[in-house]
């Protein structure tokens, strides 16, 4: 079980949250000009770092607010 610290509610069980994926992804400004490989890269390819990774989370069973937090993929420890 992971404890996630919601910045609005404090520490809560992971089951109360929805994972929103990698933080900082920017939608291409003109997707209609992208080729299939570039569009596929935007939709499906994510970094997979060993270490601190910024992620979006929603406290879906709580305050329902989205926030960005850091997680160390080596230890599942949360970092700011
Ligand atoms: Zn919350």
What does this structure look like?
The protein has a domain at 1-21 and 51-79: Folate-binding fold. It is elongated and about 45 Å long. It is built from 1 helix and 6 strands; from the N terminus they run βββαβββ. β1 and β2 form a beta hairpin. It has 80 residues and is mainly beta. It has a 4-stranded antiparallel β-sheet with strand order 3-4-5-6, with no helix packed on it. A two-stranded antiparallel sheet has the order 1-2. The chain binds zinc ion. Zinc ion (ZN) binds next to loops.
Search tags:
Folate-binding fold, SoxD, 11% helix, two-stranded antiparallel sheet, binds zinc ion, mainly beta, sarcosine oxidase activity, 80 residues
Q: What is the count of DSSP helices, taking H or I runs of 4+ residues? A: 1
> Could you say which overall geometry the principal axes of the C-alpha atoms support?
elongated
The low-confidence runs, each spanning 5 or more residues with pLDDT under 50, are: none
CATH architecture of the domain at 1-21 and 51-79: 2-Layer Sandwich
What small ligands are held by the chains? zinc ion
Number of strands: 6
Please describe the biggest sheet, giving its number of strands, its sense, and whether it closes into a barrel: 4 strands, antiparallel
Structure class = mainly beta
Overall pLDDT level: 93
Strand content: 35-45%
- Write down the secondary-structure element order: EEEHEEE
* Major sheet strand order: 3-4-5-6
Provide the gyration radius in Å.
15 Å
DSSP helix fraction: 10-25%
* CATH homologous superfamily (4th level) name of the domain at 1-21 and 51-79: Folate-binding superfamily
Task: Provide the CATH top-level class of the domain at 1-21 and 51-79.
Answer: Alpha Beta
